[in-house]
Amino acid sequence: MCLAIPARITQIDAAGENALVAIGAVTKEISLALVNDAAVGDYVLVHVGYALNKLSEEEAEYTLRLIEEIGLFDEMQDTAILASEPPTGHQA
């Protein structure tokens, strides 16, 4: 199953190409290649190491609540969604 997860940007590299995001208790490095104008504090939808698009805080929190309610959040902590690395050439 493919799933993209909302995450909050906590840091962006100097080139603006990569970011650190918080997904629950996990911090992950992702590529911002597909998202324009991302800023620290923004929420983005993350899949396989890429931010796909920005989300409002309300959309992100609602989606995270739904994921938690159906019992997937803890399970996702160990999946490829959170464990995947940014694509080669997009590392900070």
UniProtKB/TrEMBL annotation:
GO biological process: protein maturation
Pfam families listed in its UniProt record: HupF_HypC
PROSITE patterns: HUPF_HYPC
One GO molecular-function entry: carbon dioxide binding
Domain of life: Bacteria
Annotated PANTHER family: HYDROGENASE MATURATION FACTOR HYBG
NCBIfam families assigned to the protein according to its UniProt record, in alphabetical order: hypC_hupF
UniProt record similarity statement: Belongs to the HupF/HypC family.
Protein name listed in UniProt: Hydrogenase assembly chaperone HypC/HupF
